[in-house]
Write a structure and sequence with these properties.
Strand order of the largest sheet: 5-4-3-6-7-10
Distance between the termini: 40 Å
CATH topology of the largest domain: Rossmann fold
Order of helices and strands: HHEHEEHEEHHEHEEEHEH
Largest sheet: 6 strands, mixed
Helix content: 40-55%
Strand content: 15-25%
Number of helices: 9
Number of domains: 2
Radius of gyration: 20 Å
Shape: globular
CATH architecture of the largest domain: 3-Layer(aba) Sandwich
């Protein structure tokens, strides 16, 4: 990533992903980004099957029966990227690391949005929320976000990242209903889930989880030193030990399963990216999921 520049990254994204994605989606980018709309239109009484996120609790309390806020789709989407740049995102064992995948994903989605007249902004967080980029449109805005992603260093701390601080900042700062895209490996101190639930009541939220294959399954390569990328703590492990490898894989899969269940329980669509998978493939799979949900909602 250091050998690239924001402009080169954007050129590569345009040629390798955007053009192919346009062909596969046939220009229907809302397949990826549809929501229940942006602008408030009317109120109506709640009906079985309605999304409870759009219940107007003030009106419900005043009238005594549940009422739903209805929205109309706006031509312009305002999107916010909440970006986790903690040290664990620098991990990678295949051909790239998780942070490089994050940069490519953000460049792709922000480019896709701004090409259709939408505005994008970003909050970048390492140990704390270090940068806030207000929403704007255009190619220069995408270049600015990519530049900040490439230059902001991740600070190692003595404790695990608290993703709740980033979500809390989003809750306080994003006033108008928006598309909120949270990009992280979700390796965090517990408690951030409450912030996710609150964000999802106010906005259209997509959770993007980045992972590396070696975080799920260890190879049999003998004794190695493993380091906690968040705290720097090290320990030696024997990967010849098939029992240890099995326990490691079981714990990793349990963590992923818990994350998926948590997203589903809160009605948040999740996109899973891996350092060993083509980004276009991930986008197409996610578009199919969003299209299916749109037809059944």
């Amino acid at each position: 990533m250091a050998a690239s520049t924001p402009d080169r990254i954007l050129q590569r994204v345009d040629w390798q992903i955007i053009r192919r994605l346009d062909g596969l989606l046939q220009g229907d980018y809302r397949t990826l980004l549809y929501g229940q709309g942006i602008d408030f239109a009317d109120l109506r009484e709640y009906q079985v099957g309605d999304d409870i996120r759009y219940i107007d609790w003030n009106v419900t309390a005043r009238i005594g029966t549940p009422h739903i806020r209805q929205y109309v789709e706006d031509r312009e989407i305002t999107a916010w990227f909440l970006l986790d740049l903690s040290p664990s995102l620098q991990f990678g064992t295949v051909e790239t690391d998780k942070r490089a995948v994050l940069v490519d994903f953000v460049a792709t989605l922000s480019r896709l949005l701004t090409r259709h007249g939408n505005r994008v902004g970003a909050m970048l967080a390492g140990a704390s929320v270090d940068r806030v980029i207000p929403p704007r449109g255009g190619r220069l805005q995408v270049l600015r976000i990519v530049h900040e992603l490439m230059t902001l260093s991740a600070s190692r701390t003595t404790s695990i990242t608290d993703l709740g601080a980033l979500l809390g900042a989003g809750l306080r700062s994003i006033k108008r209903r928006s598309l909120v895209v949270i990009v992280s490996d979700f390796i965090s101190a517990p408690g951030w889930e409450a912030g996710l639930s609150m964000l999802n009541r106010r906005h259209e939220v997509i959770a993007v989880c980045i992972r590396d294959p070696r975080e799920v399954e260890l190879p049999d390569v003998g004794t190695i030193t493993m380091e906690d990328s968040e705290t720097g703590e090290q320990m030696e492990v024997d990967t010849h030990d098939h029992v240890f490898r099995g326990q490691f894989q079981e714990a990793s899969r349990a963590r992923e399963g818990s994350l998926r269940q948590g997203f589903n329980r809160r009605g948040v669509d999740s996109l899973w990216l891996s350092t060993d998978e083509d980004l276009l493939t991930s986008f197409v799979r996610f578009a199919a999921l969003r299209q299916k949900r749109r037809k059944t909602s």
